Amino acid sequence: MQPLAPKNRLNLVNTKPPSNCVASFSRGATTHSDIGHARVAPDLLDFESVMQNMMRKIKRLMLLKSVIRTNPKGWIEAARLEEDTGNIRKARELIRKGCEEFPKNEDVWIEACRLANPDEAKGVIAKGVNTIPNSVKLWIQAARLEHDDYNKRRVLRKGLEKIPDSVRLWKALVELANEDEAKRLLQRAVECCPLHVELWLALARLEKYDATKKVLNKAREKLPKEQVIWIAEAKLEEAFGNTFMVGKVIEKGIRALQREGGGD
């Protein structure tokens, strides 16, 4: 057998694949790498983000658990954290425990009411007002849970039986009343809260001319330094066309306030 001539021998060292094969392989490798990067990297980033958020929430929850024994706000924050993670059942358990640990804290009851099932919210707030009957905030919340004005008024009246000097409860009740009922309520309100000028002025606006002047005079007896009472009387005279009385009322008011030390 004759050996291959030098020009016909295979060069196993310098043999190169066809140029089109190299280009095809190179393009294929690049495409495969890019696809892998596009598929994996976002998933890794999302996973890292989720884990970081989870670790922050775990650390926050551990911190809250360390303070909830002595701080009612800790119970509220812990319950909200569970709510944020979608664990509403655990949130309700925590805030219920908070109510047991701090039964005299109205904010814990308000949060428990918010987290409760709609059909259980009234029961929660009822426990709250029974535990803290002098909490205006809880009585207002109890009234809000009622769907009709009749029951709202009923709840507010119960609240006023416990806290007759609450201006906020009186205002809420008056807002639900018609004009005649509002007048009766305000007459009672100024007896219970004689030092709150807004109640006197609200009553004066519902009365006729002569009765309004009497109301303003009574208001001045209780609040001699209140400038707005004199201003209200001046506006009353102006509204009824008694322009000659407006200046007299203002002058009289200035002298009275100077005597009382309430005029500027």
From TrEMBL:
<dbReference type="InterPro" id="IPR045075">
    <property type="entry name" value="Syf1-like"/>
</dbReference>
<keyword id="KW-0677">Repeat</keyword>
<dbReference type="GO" id="GO:0000398">
    <property type="term" value="P:mRNA splicing, via spliceosome"/>
</dbReference>
<dbReference type="Pfam" id="PF13428">
    <property type="entry name" value="TPR_14"/>
</dbReference>
<dbReference type="InterPro" id="IPR011990">
    <property type="entry name" value="TPR-like_helical_dom_sf"/>
</dbReference>
<dbReference type="InterPro" id="IPR003107">
    <property type="entry name" value="HAT"/>
</dbReference>
<protein>
    <submittedName>
        <fullName>Putative tetratricopeptide-like helical domain, Pre-mRNA-processing factor 6/Prp1/STA1</fullName>
    </submittedName>
</protein>
